[in-house]
Amino acid sequence: MNSLNHPPCRLAIGPMGSVGIPVALFLLYGLGTGCDPISSGLTVSARAVPSQEWVLQQGADGEITGSLTDHLQGRRLSRTILGCERDDRIIFETHPELAYGTAVAAGDTIGRRVSALNSRRQVELQGQLDVERAYLAMARSGHKASLVREAGAELDLARAEAEQQRRQLTRQQRLFERNLVAIADLELAAAAVESADLNIHIAEAQLQTARTGSRDQEIAWVEARIADLLSQLEQVRLDIAADVVCSPIGGRFLGGRGDTLAVVQDTTTWAAVMPVSWYDRQHLRPGLGVELVWEAGLAPSTGQLTRLGTGAFSALDGRQFVAVVARLDSVDSALVPGLVGQCRINDNAGTWLDRLQRILAL
User: Fold this and answer.
1) pLDDT for 148-170, tens place per residue?
2) What single string gives the DSSP state of each residue in 18-79?
3) CA-based R_g, the chain, Å
């Protein structure tokens, strides 16, 4: 009889009963998002990268720049290695002994820049030097008539060159008046005329010396010219020697394509880059262990977190992420840059309530 007076049984809806739904969500959502509510581990996608990477590139203006990225430290340094003069044409020649995958050490030569201006200047100076040496031989032999003819021919060539430069300056002036060339092009043409006029004065002085000067004066004049040409030629040779590009790091040479002239990657040490939600980041710290399973079926890798990013980026759904980096202690020899996989981080989130808050915040 008393049992008929009891109210029907119902689920508890008190303070303890209100936890049921969040706990269920905690278990289901955690398993679906990579958060392990039992061991507090965090599983995220990861990408393999070399510890350091050096990229050599050439810009549209001919300048050659090198960019060194340290993935473990999160640093990137970019600087101009070789500049480019106006109207110069630059070609980069890779060292002939380098092939794709070749091991290089820090300081090894990767290639050299070939400057059209330097090459042309070297040929011109060498030609002038050969002429002056022949002129010196005639001066020492005492053949005055030959010296005069040679000096006269040099003067004729200088005048013809000056006339050509004046015609070029006239064309540039007309184009400039029609806004078809820049002021710098006009100034360059004017400078070429001034240089040609100076060569005329030098040739005239040489002819005068050949006609009226003594044999010793002629010899001294030619010897001074030869010394000046040798000095200029040595400077050009030094400039060409300085156009060599060396790798700042050791690693594997991967060649280049297009504007990228060369790539060197230090694969003696590997790193893994992972996107982690902004909320999960506060539960991580450098030194936490990681385990990676690669999609290509390679042997798993282990390591430790080394860097937690501070700059956030947004996913398509608006959630905020940061990049974290782990140093890998053990890797498969077949690992290559860019390979993706799954990384488990032992994040030590703390109590069950901490882990529940973390999942509900996703």
Assistant:
1) 777 788 888 889 888 998 998 89
2) GGHHHHHHHHHHHHHHTB-TTT-EEEEEEEEEEEEEEEEEE-TTS-EEEEEEETTTTEEEEE
3) 37
